[in-house]
Amino acid sequence: MTHMGAGAGAGGETKSSSARLPQPQYLLSTRPSCAQISGLSPGQTKLCQLYQDHMPGVGRGARAGIAECQWQFRHARWNCSTVQEASVFGGVLRIASREAAFAHAVGAAGVVQAISRACRDGQLSSCGCSRTGRPRDLHRDWIWGGCGDNLEYGYKFTQGFVDVRERERNYRKASREQGRSLMNLHNNEAGRRAVIKMSRVTCKCHGVSGSCSLITCWQQLAPFREVGDYLKDKYDGATEVRVNRRGRLQIRDPRFNRPTANDLVYIDESPNYCVRNLSVGSLGTQGRTCNRTSHGMDGCNLMCCGRGYNTQKTVVRERCQCKFHWCCYVECKTCTKTVDVHTCK
Length: 345
Prior knowledge:
Oligomer: single chain
Structural class: alpha/beta
Distance between the termini: 48 Å
Mean pLDDT: 86
Largest sheet: 4 strands, mixed
Number of domains: 2
Number of strands: 12
Order of helices and strands: EHHHHEHHEEHEEEEEEHEE
Number of helices: 8
């Protein structure tokens, strides 16, 4: 897909592999010293020391992944909220559920996105603009250039840094721990691939008075919301798997298609998010705001798990009757209205 637009470019296509979301304490840390970052594996600590200028980008990407997770699940019983700040997603990451699959995938995707953009912006010493090859279907008169987001580098760095946590461990073959490790690697690969799949060729016109006599194109990252939407679709269609005697993941139900490297997989059924259970990372839905007229997951019947809901009147203040004055400001009044707010019992 080719988009015409303005601005700087982004990077190209990449091969594939696998990854795991770094420990949450690391993801949210802004401390510069690798020794002070809790939760790093030995391999990650070494890479942190070698690539210290990459760490702020990793943190930004991880926070973007968490924010996107919370946006995608804002109307669900599990809304990607934290039980304890230090654990980010709470105990839910300890359960090999489809929620954990999404969390790992979107976290890895966020890091790829951030590192790829940091390369383009000249923030990292070991990479710069993308050098990906010219697409075969690009118009022959258009120039392939500009400063593209470096997806190749972002992918490879994320793969190395995130996957090392799983790869340096030696689990017993066919054990549950090995199965979870394989699940994490698979889902983080799906997250990395999502960033690449959603990227697009973007082009910009050059010329006197908008003549567009010259067109320059480059590979550019998609808005991260598009990556999140794509991964949410993969979450909805995630495949249940198990680890077999050969130490490989296989689908539990042979009637279903084998998942590709772009799909999400999970081992355990999701816990009951209706009730508060800190051991599994569930805050429950008591007190959550719901929509009385909705028949979806945000509706009071589903969100409140059949327990019913409370309704209270709330006064809302908002800008209204806005007028544009030449030149150049907008003048508004403040209006108040009373609305019903419904919360789960």
